[in-house]
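writing this on my phone so excuse typos. first protein, seq and then structure
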Amino acid sequence: MINNIKKYGKEILFLAAAIFVLAFPQHAEAKEPDMEITIYGVGSREAEKVKIPDNLPQSFQLNYGSGQDAKYRISDGDSVNVSPDGFVTPRYFYWKGHSGSPQITDDYDYYTLYGGTAKIEAETAGKTYYITVHVIDYSIMYCDEIMDAYLRENVTDGMTDLEKMQALARFPAQYDYSTRYSNVYSMILYGGGDCAASTNAIITLCSKLGIESWGIDGSYSGYDTHVQPIVELNGAYYVIEAGYTSKKGEDGYRNYNVWKRTSLFQYYENNNYDGVIVTQYDGHNTNDTLEVPEMIDGLKVTGLDDGIFQGRNFTEIILPDTLTSIGDEAFSGCYELESIHIPASVTSIGEFAFENCWKLKNLSVAGDNLDYKSENQIIYSKDGSVLVACPVAKEIEIPSTVTKIGASAFSGNINIEHIVIPESVSELGKGAFNGTFRLKSIAIEGNNLAVIGPGCFADSGIAVIRLPASVKSLGVNAFTGCYELKHIYFSGNAPEFGGIIHGEFYDEVFLKCTANAYYIGDDPTWTKDALTGHSGTISWIPYTKEACRSIENAALALGEDIEVNQPSVTVTLDGTVLEQNKDYIVCYIFNLPDAEYYVAKALVLGIGSYEGEVSAIYITNKQPRKITANTESSTIEANATTRIVVSDSVNDGCKYAYSSNDTSVAIVDSEGVVTGIAPGRAVITVTAPETEIYKAASAKVKITVTGSQKEEDKPTEAPSASPLPTVKPTETPSASASPTIKPTAAPSAQPLPTVKPTETPEPLPTIKPSASPSANPEVKVDISTKVMMNGINYKVTSIKNGMRTVECTGTKKSGKSIVIPSTIKIFSSTYKVTAIAKSSFRGNKKISKITIGKNVKKIGQNAFNGCKNLKYFVIKTNKLTDKTVGKNAFKGINSKATVKVPGSKVKAYKKIIKSKGAGKNIKVKK
């Protein structure tokens, strides 16, 4: 209780000060300091478990002006409501399914508390007073007291560190295992939780003790996806496992375990039992420099496991001189990695080890390494016959010593635009140019190249390629996802298409490609089987191979239509104007490396009788955009709210800015929610800021605010200062039984919610609800109208009756869990969520879990690309196909992600998800 006095004493003093002010209204006109008050609230679901004690105020009456009119407005925060006459209450959010609104409706399912701090301004007699309001969620306060009491009784100074850890483990272990709840507060209130709740409990308890703790991936324990806490105490690390799914034993606890570690690296012994393979790094700081030790627990570190540092944010990783092997994808997706040195001891580097290491400017190999060498940020085999890795180089001249481009050598290189393969090269390895989206053309010299490996050019930007007659095989998925591939020329016999994977034959060489393919017309090896689409849309055209003229010295003239960002191009060679799409094609390249955003390139590639390339740099003009704005209601009462609905000609996830020309009449928050303050008219301006591509745009909408009814029986006196809560937590709460404290009445700031309490609480002051705002007769939803629901952005894609649909375009919220529902409501109409737009969540590093509703039919390309912390998917829809999921939709998600899908779709979805960029270690289950 003493701790609580310290915790809440400041709030009580402020309440006392506030009451003193209100008791002597003659001082309201004088110069006053800012007032700070505290009120309490609780959501409807939590209200079924706990009741706010009567001595904790749930509202506050501001009395400024000594009988004169005062204007009140919320200047910051969204945790409170304030009426025109200064009655302050917590703000609640009312939910129907997955849709919520701060405005109460008749058919909501439940409501939640905003919580937090808000600021109110009171204007009277030419003066402005500033009030800070803290809204405390009583359910959190209640649970904190439960934990505080547990720590006082069960963790003492006389314990050893191990005993303290065991005591911490018993706290979540006394509750049932339940997959419904994933944080400690829900675990306490509802009597159970999952491994995430147990982990959250340990971390919260440690925080209260001033001990550092964080969550780690515990999947190695035999779970598909599992999290557990690790605690750092007195130079040692303790892993606490209290998230087992077992039932409680006779002692009242589920199984739990604590083990001590000396290192943050996990490992297993190698096959020769002369060292260890490091499998996982469990440190919470993944920035700056990481040094891998030479020894762990007296054992020599000899290897890095597959994907060990995948997606981490280290800028430098220092490897030990004992290291001999680097696993597949070991550093893949380390977007911030700038420096790494391969020691002399390394004899093996896995495939895709440096994929998507975009900033790796210092890549080197020890000079005395017997297997590898480095030159200009490129790794070669020691004898120079294999080009092993080139993750960032923009320009490269491949030495004539190279006979093979190794597996994944250029994979994820976003800088390279053109490359010449010398005559010495006979093989392009698996995934050699995978994901090189700026690579538009490749020149293959001589007639020696025989093998193009599986996935060699998958997801690259290749547009034109001429294969020599020496090519004998094109591996599985060799050109999969090459959406820009337009022309491919074969110069000799038909090669073998496809290959064997895991004992089964696959072709899919041109999967998701639409291109013209040219073959030698009189060559009998080009049979009907060879002239199929090979899983793509290929138009086979016979031709006679002849010498081609180079266009490298052609003159380019750009048209006057640069503002569209893709200007027309005229190509003149030796006085002859060439014909586009017959003699050449044009590729436009934006966001050039080491260039300003407005610098672009027009790249001309020869086709037909012409070969080679020529380019011109140009400056783009920003494109115009148009936005319109409507409101759900153009007329609202004071203290009521409405929402701005924006329609935008551009779908780029824009974050709009909102402002009011008269904040004494209406204010608007960052999400476009307008709150009426006092009768009058205000104009709300919506602004789309200028971007690298688009000009700024704005739209205006008028709001009329009318007066609201006075509450008849609202108390005019402020509540008295309240002592501390009288709820006494049990020292060791039951793990299975929920707390027995009765719920409170529903919050009275708005019409009373319909949550049924278990016993009749004392009635709170009733407030008459404002009249329903009149509907705006001018509101119209059009195609491309944009709305935000629960922090998720949507764009309308169809407005036909019975076929109203939207697509999800992303989110600005910072939460870790995202739910894309089956439907949303816009005004009075229901819209199905049928698509997730391309790049909608790309690069979002905060999301760890996402649920996709049952109506989603399409997921755009790069939708979740780079969501490296995204570990858990729940896919409810059974409507996805390979054609409706775009390329790289799942690329860069957590390498050990778990995807839960409908039972009938496990096999099909597993193939789709992995083909769209997900790592090989993801788990797909029903």
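second protein below, same order as before
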Amino acid sequence: MYMLTLLYGFTGTSLLLIDKVTGKRVCATIEYMAPYITAEAKFLFNVGGKVIFRQVETHRDYRTTMYSNLFKVSEENPKPKTMVWQIVKGRKNLPETMCRRLRRRPPVAHGTIKVGAHKDDAISTMHSAKLPLSKPGCIIGMYLLLRLPNTGRIVSCARIRKVVPKTAAVAFFHDGVKGRIGFNQRSEYDITDVHVSLTNLRSIASGYHVHEWPVPLKFGADENICGPSKVSGHYNPFDVDIKNSPPAGKGTEDQYELGDLSGKYGKLDNSNNFVKSFTDNNLPLFGIYSIIGRSVVIHRKDGSRWICSTIVPEGTLIRTVATFKSPVIGRIVMMQDAGDRFADTQVYVELNYANGITTSTSYHAWHVHVNEICSDFNGKSCACSSAGGHFNPYNVELQGDYKSQCNPRNPLRCELGDQSGKNGRLSIRSQNGDFSRFFFTDEHLQLTGNFGVIGKSVVIHAANSGSARLACANLVLTPKRTLIVNQWYNMTSARVRGFSRFTGDVEKHQEEQAFVKIRLQNLDRQADGFHVHEFPVDPTSNFPPCSPKAVGGHFNPFDVNIKQSPPAGTGTHDQYEVGDLSGKYGKLLTGKNFVEVSGLDNFLPVRGQLSIAGRSIVIHKSDSSRWVCGNIVESIMTSRALLMEARAMFTSGPVRGYIHLAQYRYPNGRLSDTSIVVNLNPAPGVPKSSCHNWHVHVTPVKPDGDVMNGCLSAGPHYNPFHVNVKEGYDECKFENPWRCELGDSSGKHGCYDIGGGKRFYTDVNLPLRGKYGVIGRSFVIHVANKGAARYVCANIRGRSFLQMHSKISVYKIFSKFVKSGFIFLYSYEAEFIQSLVSKVKGYLASYFNFTYRYIDDVLSINNPKFTDYLSSIYPSELEVKETTETNNSASYLDVMLSYDTGGHMNTLLYDKRDDFNSSITNFPFLSSNIPSSPAYGVFISQLIRYARASTKYTDFVLRAGRLSDKHLSQGYVCDRLTSSLRKFYGR
């Protein structure tokens, strides 16, 4: 390494060395040996490209260097142009398409700049001592304007944003190995600092590398999630031939594969604990070659793969998923920093076929399109033609040189939604029949903001660059999911109170992790172990609530032998049963009366086939006996989700029992996974039988269960996505549920033994309500040993959605003292809920999660128990009268609530005067003595009120039209009303 000391004027330039023999070039930027502040102005509208600002962090008097690479994006035949640049102040979130709002701002600084016809045509460097990147006079947060030199017309603008340093890490907590590899990079123009800290390697480890894909969720005990089909090979985007690489640790970073960490830094051979730091000039955290979201694999000495984990960024991410169901199955996952819509977006793709195609197809174009297509509850067309055109909010020109200029190295020349142009085309299905997988870092894909893609759709086109639309799916926001246990049932006397909370760490890429918080009191120093158990507590059961018959054994999907697990709290989480919380975390409860702890569980999924949602937690005593238990349920206070439940009761024929289904619906219409409890036994005199296939069928059966008719009235299997069951259907399995018919429960979860005991499953593709809901259909159990004949059947019946009760009439004290009335009624309500808890009926209390009262009006949503318990809540001298007209609609305060046929709740403004055709006016006449401005202000305030109350735009428009007519009839001026309406719409 050589260090050159140059004059001040050379900083910000580069040095190029050329080998006279080979012609090989080596270059480096000349900068101070000090940390730099970096800022960026990214141009997206009319002009594309970036202007980068760099200044030494510790010396604000040092000059700032401007690097620019700007080019035309909105002209069919672009020509280079010299423009005037100005730096001006402006509001923070101004859309890039509305730059002209800045036209009257006085410039802080100005000059001229070249804009090329294409990228790299007009690269330039400028230096200025008047563009500080720190206070005072800091230009970060201001706007860089581009104007035409003659007319002064604003062509484009970009906000100057500080480039925030990126920190990422890969955490290892596998097979006894603990530690992490941390990565830090200040900007894409700085080196990456790497810190390795690993313990208990036991001289097993050798090479370690960044691999192409993130680590997937594990489904089977013997599954190798570090294998080539799961995380692919070494990350090598520059196609370095490893045969030409120097021995490990002897060369420069560019001589190795980008992801070959052990090649660059040396191997881990013969180490137990390894702690070292390195710097790397070829390991970016920014841009299309970023390692964030990929994985690191540690190999054994023989080269085989040992342990692996995903590289996770620091901070909070936002995540959206497009799930494909027909004819393509799979998902496209997009993740971006929640606080920066201009940050890089990581895109992970996994795709396969469900229509019987058994070969790989390639060169599929794919794009984000403008419109949302159908979903469970929106009633829109499911055809991919309803997705509209490509999402191109910046009006990028598509003629001329678009095809040659839009490419992965030039994403700002592409439509924002042109994923194949920015990242390359896709193949569907791998050569060995597995899912095809891809991972990209997209520099030009906003998930949120004015031009965010969440709520739009992704369309995959036909193979070989065909234009026909093959498959499509909506981009749906994935919310953080929180599960909680806060209702406890006792086996023996206990006073335990508190909660255990599990939050899915979806924003950190790894779906198997959960952040756990436990707060328990009144343990009386009796508690010891605590575990997730297989089944939920059923308070109506004849068995003790926490007994093996009620909740089963520990949740142990990977069949871990507990005799081989390390002592509690000393090993890594994969060395214990998934549900063995006290084994993983240590004996936190032992000898305690009060416990409050929190931390990360490396494998405790809150979503997916191995989710703990719907199961239970059991706390044991020090003698290992079961003491108290509680169900793991959705934290609806966090998600505002609605619980939907359904049950198929088998009451006739050779089988007795039930199949119970539970699912949550979130405010955005998204559905959770469905929890299934199956508990079927032979009827008296009928022997037990094994391995029955079971399915949801299309139609309900006759009231007697249609057993005598062979359950033929149930129709065929429910297969709304037309999954091909004749070719390749052996791919339908637990790990690949989207390849199954929606109703093929045995394909997704396995056959069922009647009389073999209760079973619990989590189904990721079994909606209860909506377009593809199974409520109103039927379950058919087929004959034993996977036979095809129909054995017994039952209809799937759901619970009603909405009830409304209002007008509690009380004594005169209520009308005189409103606050006292509140306390008066609250005392009865609180006493009622407390009595349910003390009587171990907490499951009933959960029905009242969506029961509300305001003075004398009560709203009860999805609560079939309210009417039954009215007499237990309020004293007999109070009259409680139900005023609901239908089961699907009700008015509460000033809002009308209703459920449509798809189960979607809609709201609109409710005005009692409409019911009585009253002409009472509560808006001011202009002829009154009040000034006119407040009167027109009333118009806007009412529009805001209507908008907040209406879920449908048509309801808002109707109400706004009536309001306008009313105001015009009262003498309001049409032009001023129109102006007010424009202000309301922000125009």
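The domain at 642-798 is CATH 2.60.40.200 (Immunoglobulin-like). thats all i got for now
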